[in-house]
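User: Hey, quick favor. My workstation is busy. Could you predict this chain's structure for me?
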Amino acid sequence: MADLKYDRAVYRDRESGELKIIRAENLSDSDTLSTARTNTLYDLSEQTELVARAGDTNAPHFAGKATEGRRLVQGERDKQHDKRVVELATTLQASPNWTLGLLGKRTKNTPPTFTPKIELFNYRWGNEINQIVDKETIVRHDVFGASNSLAMSVRQPAIAIEVINTHYPDEAAFNSFIQKSLREPFIVLFDVIQFRGQNFSNLLVKIDPDTSRLCYRAYTYWIQKGSVYKGDYPQKKIDSYARLKIEMEDTLTWFAKEK
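Assistant: No problem, here it is.
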């Protein structure tokens, strides 16, 4: 079968709510086609509505319904990246309660200090989570967590962790993060796996399951309140992903020399 724009479609079972998948290659089966035509179908992101087509001059396929739609922005995909994303999400899913805070320096005689910033109660976490950020953009966050509480509170912000291995997210994602963090309680932490062949996992974002701490450091870059921060200090000159990449790589270069 020739490459199709939509080779699979999904729908929700009306009784269980379970997500079901239909493959385009199976639409030639009358029962499968009937199921496809009696359910509301979407693409795998569940953002674009699809219709099933079979029995005409073309091979069985799915087609998107005419709509203005939103652009889906997603990060890189490779084994190292995906492994780190699953590791972070799985660790966070082990507990509903965490403390976000600043992890200080370790000395020869004392453990690193920890300064708590926000207590995160009753949070739910997942990986590869789609979020509508504006009328034009959907962002697929590597790791995303939010309080189960129905009330929105600055003390219980939604938190995304974007994992960087070899590619940085694009300007559309950066701008949407900035704007969303202006409108509502929303934080984005940037994690880096490696830089110039050196491993930096757990340097910028560290999760300690024994103490239920989600840690950033004085040199961690993150977004909140419409600005990029380094540690606890806003970086007003960082107004694009291109500038963020330069600043982050300068920091990583310094650490690479220190190792």
